Amino acid sequence: SLLLDGKVAVISGAASPRGIGLATARLFAAHGATVVILDLDGQAAAAAAAGIGPAHRGYACNVADKDACLRVADRIVTEFGRIDVLINNAGITQPVKTLEIDPASWDRIVDVNLRGVLYLSQAVLPQMQKQRSGSIACMSSVSAQRGGGILGGPHYSAAKAGVLGLAKAMAREFGPDNIRINCVTPGLIDTDITSGKLDDAKKAEIAATIPLNRLGKADEIAGAYLFLASDLSSYITGAVIDVNGGMLIH
Ligand code: NAD
User: Fold this and answer.
1) Domain ranges of the chain
2) How far is the CA of 99 from the centre of ligand 1 (A)?
3) How large is the ipTM?
């Protein structure tokens, strides 16, 4: 059966062709949702949405820009009348060590990965409160839990760990409004975020250290997001779902 029939789902960072966001948009659409893709480039977002089907939309939104988040949320409510699901998926990484983190890099990584989760959530929460229902899922990372994944620097770990705290606090605050807020913590997923930074030999080396002996696929994170977005998870809030092939078992 269709798990998101008639729902309006907003997904940030979902224009990248091999990314987790677009895989999620496709899966949500297949489950009956109307999907709104947000990404930095509005044309790329619109093209990605059109590629899924004519009912879907793609708009420009830099999640680190609060006004942009408020404007796009208004536009979506005007167009569709509701927002049932928000997937705070947008993120960037940078492979540097502690002593190499300059102020601008700290700001950039924290702004997109953490501040962006706050701003886009702030933009949709009032509508979800009016509806007295909603589900928000936020992208963290194994990097937050084990102090570094494979590629992200300490600023990325800090930002993704911040997402866990922010999401848990929001889950407490908005539970009485029947709004659920959860996180996913992926291990290493084969998308373009690692492109140019990991060759096949290095990927094979990493895969050998993972209990399931392989990297994850974008669709496998989309599956966790679908669970959290749908009523299958109706009594789950403030939770963190590991999707890491066993890379971290705790
Ligand atoms: P990706 O680079 O394919 O996708 C990231 C998307 O976010 C891109 O479409 C990009 O344009 C968009 N984006 C970047 N900055 C933005 C901004 N300011 N506003 C709106 N959109 C913005 O990579 P991905 O692997 O699909 O990453 C998706 C999320 O998953 C990220 O938050 C990433 O940190 C997280 N993550 C990825 C992995 C992995 O191994 N691939 C592991 C853990 C967590």
Assistant:
1) 8-242
2) 24
3) 0.99
